[in-house]
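Moderator note: this is an archived Q&A kept for reference. The question asked for a predicted structure of one protein chain; the sequence and the answer are reproduced below.
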Amino acid sequence: MEKDLDEVKKSLNFMSAELTKVVTQQSDLMKLIVEVQNLREIIKEKDKKIEELENRVEQLEQHARMEEVVISGLETTHRTYARAASGGNAGEDAPAEELLSLEKQVIQFFGSKGISIDSTTIAACYTIPKKQAKKQKTIIQFVSRKHKVDLLKVAKKLKGTGVYVNEHLTKKNAEIAWQARVLKKERKIQDTWIRNCKVMIKLNGPPEQAKVVSIRSLSELEKLK
């Protein structure tokens, strides 16, 4: 009998020790869970700050382009990099087109379509490198936003020429604009356009309910799909 009691005591002591281990392990596990939750909150907060900084950089980049338009489809010819680097001057081997500055070519083209651009309103004119050299996108930076708006208003005169004039959007805003056009094609929205480098959309619904809103992120468009 006494031997049986000793065996029971040993069993109880063993179970008590094992239970203590389990309790300790559970306590450690709870501490780890809390720590993970805290780390997730820290990461979430950091992600939020990173997103805010990225949006700020995006806004600054777009603001820097507020006086610019991008011209696509315009065929231009100007001095090659090799000739410019070598300091080559006008000569018998230099085609006349190459001697005409890019800015003058752009002004002449628009003039031929009944669109007058004063060279004094242009701060800079340059191309964005592209494989198809003669049809690189051309950027015009005006000295003021007013001149940019004036050009955009009369750009409809280029219809049928294959040349297009648009506001110079950042990569992010260009993607938003493209996705908005897709939604319009799918009739998920009534219309979309660009205003002062902002992507605008008109929601579906009767005239009194069809709101016009500015879209700042792709996630906003996702909600309309």
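Archived answer notes: The domain at 68-168 is CATH 3.30.70.330 (Alpha-Beta Plaits).
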